[in-house]
Amino acid sequence: MKLNVTVNGIAYSVEVEVEEEQRQLGTIVFGGGAPQTHSEPATASVQGVSANAVVAPLAGSVFKILVEEGDEIEAGQVLLVLEAMKMETEITAPTAGTVGQIRVEVGESVQGGQALIVID
């Protein structure tokens, strides 16, 4: 069976041999440690998104919002938590500033690259 695997942002194609009765498709997570932290400000390649926007690194649903509009924040501060495939992903502030706009609500489904919060 041929699999596509991404490790540290680098994609690899690998072949593995699996006994047919044990075949199962899904996501394998190694490490089991603390939730992954992502902070990816939008770039010019994301249409219609402010350069100061924090965007979703993956599709999922908004599990928690930990800030409010007008809050002063620090770089690296957790702004919200996304849930995807029963895994929580903390979204952090790429820079210090003020929360200018929160563009999502708890329970809302989001797509990868969607603007979540704008930092002024």
Give a quick set of tags describing it.
single chain, 120 residues, mainly beta, OB fold (Dihydrolipoamide Acetyltransferase, E2P), five-stranded mixed beta sheet, four-stranded antiparallel beta sheet, elongated, biotin carboxylase activity, biotin, EC 6.3.4.14, Biotin_lipoyl, biotin carboxylase
Account of the 3D structure:
The protein is 0% helix and 42% strand. It has 120 residues and is an all-beta fold. It has a single domain, classed as RNA polymerase II/Efflux pump adaptor protein, barrel-sandwich hybrid domain (OB fold (Dihydrolipoamide Acetyltransferase, E2P), Beta Barrel). Residues 37-47 have low confidence and may be disordered. Its EC number is 6.3.4.14.
Layout of helices and strands, plus pairs?
Layout lengths: L1 E6 L2 E6 L21 E2 L14 E3 L4 E6 L6 E2 L4 E7 L2 E6 L4 E6 L6 E2 L4 E5 L1
Parallel strand pairs: 3-8
Antiparallel strand pairs: 1-2, 4-11, 5-7, 5-10, 6-9, 7-8, 9-11
